[in-house]
Design brief:
mainly beta, globular
Length: 202
C-alpha cells in the first residue's frame, strides 16, 4: 500500500491512532530513569514504538505505565521472551499502514539504506521487501541519536532521535526528542517533538 499524496509530515491530529516513537534511551540501573518530560509528553498516545538501544529492559516497563510498548533490539540490548521485544526487525500494522521497525538500517547486514549516506538505486521497496518480508509504508529507526523525518518514493522514514542523549545538533543540557505518528484511515501524519526541561512540572 502506498501512502496517499496528502500524507505529509505535519501537526494535524487526524484521529484514529496516535503512536509515540522513541529510540536510544540507553537506560541505566533498573531502567526506570527515562526523562520525566518524556513520559509526560507521551500521555495520550495509544501505543509506543521503541527502536532499540534500550540497554535495560526496565525502560519498556517504565514506558508501559503510559501505553503498550512494542520494541526492537539495538546492538547491546538484552533479549526477553514474548512479543514485546523483537530481535532486530519487526512490522507493526495499524489501520492498514505497515510500519517497519529496525534499530540501524545498516544492521544486520546486508545494508539496505541509511538516511545519512543516501538511498540505494532503484525502487526502494525492492530493498525494503527482502528485509522486512513485506512492503512497508513507514520505516522507524534509531542509532544516530539525530532526529530525522523524510519521504522517499512514497515511504516515510522516521528517526525520533534520543529523548535522553540527543545528538550533536543539540545543546549539552537539552533533554532530547521523540516523534509521533497519527494514523487514520490509511493516512499518516508524522511530527518530531523537542522535549523542554521541566515541562512535566507545568
Amino acid at each position: 500500500m502506498m501512502l496517499p499524496p496528502s500524507a505529509r509530515p505535519g501537526r494535524l491530529r487526524l484521529g484514529g491512532m496516535r503512536i509515540g516513537v522513541v529510540a536510544d534511551t540507553h537506560a541505566q540501573g533498573d531502567g526506570w530513569d527515562s526523562p520525566p518530560e518524556l513520559l509526560h509528553a507521551l500521555r495520550g498516545v495509544d501505543l509506543i514504538l521503541h527502536c532499540g538501544d534500550l540497554d535495560e529492559l526496565g525502560v519498556l516497563d517504565h514506558l508501559e505505565t503510559v501505553a503498550p510498548v512494542l520494541a526492537v533490539r539495538g546492538y547491546p540490548d538484552p533479549r526477553e521472551d514474548g512479543d514485546r521485544l523483537a530481535d532486530t526487525l519487526r512490522v507493526v500494522e495499524v489501520e492498514g499502514v505497515r510500519i517497519g521497525m529496525v534499530h540501524d538500517p545498516r544492521w544486520p547486514l546486508p545494508m539496505t539504506f541509511t538516511h545519512t549516506l543516501g538511498f540505494p538505486p532503484g525502487p526502494i521497496q525492492d530493498h525494503l521487501r527482502p528485509r522486512f518480508g513485506t512492503e512497508v509504508d513507514v520505516v522507524c529507526f534509531g542509532d544516530t541519536h539525530d532526529e530525522y523525518i523524510g519521504w522517499y518514493q512514497g515511504v516515510l522514514f522516521l528517526n525520533p532521535g534520543s529523548p535522553s542523549r540527543p545528538g550533536m545538533r543539540h545543546r549539552a543540557d537539552d533533554v532530547g526528542t521523540f516523534a509521533t505518528l497519527d494514523i487514520h484511515q490509511g493516512v499518516v501524519a508524522a511530527e518530531l517533538h523537542k522535549l523542554r526541561r521541566g515541562q512535566h512540572l507545568e
